[in-house]
Amino acid sequence: QVQLVESGGGLVQAGGSLRLSCAASGRTFVRYAMGWFRQAPGKEREFVAAIIWSGGGTYYADSVKGRFTISRDNAKNTVYLQMNSLKPEDTAVYYCAASRNNNYLTLRNRYEYDSWGQGTQVTVSS
Questions:
Q1: pLDDT digits (tens, 9 = 90+) for 85-121
Q2: Residue 77: C-alpha distances to residues 28, 29, 41, 71 (Å)
Q3: Which terminus of the chain has a smaller tally of CB atoms within 10 A, N or C?
Q4: How far apart are CA 114 and CA 49, in angstroms?
Q5: Which of 99, 100, 86, 93 is nearest to 37 (CA)?
Q6: Phi-psi region of 63 (alpha: psi -120 to 50; beta: other; left: phi over 0)
Q7: Mean pLDDT of the chain
Q8: CA atoms within 13 A on the CB side of 107
């Protein structure tokens, strides 16, 4: 397993931007697909975006497509989530997660992920 630590959350006005980072420990980071999920109060944890080990495939929830971009730097063991045009409904705790399964058909499923970070709060004010 890898250890994951998110950063970059905060308070932003609607229409603004934030970039989340997730730093991973371990030399096997390059083998993992990485995902971002979020959980708002009283709601289930939901898929936001995922990227396969090479960075060659990225996948997004419909609610964030065109506004969010996931990327990774394997040399730095880091995955990013650039969030633009933020909306109040994007408010949630954001989690990064690592999966040894690089099958794009399953990366939207949170149960496919082996390791999770502690989460970072994103609050978007109207």
A1: 999 999 999 999 999 988 888 999 999 999 999 999 9
A2: 9, 6, 30, 11
A3: C
A4: 16
A5: 93
A6: alpha
A7: 95
A8: 25
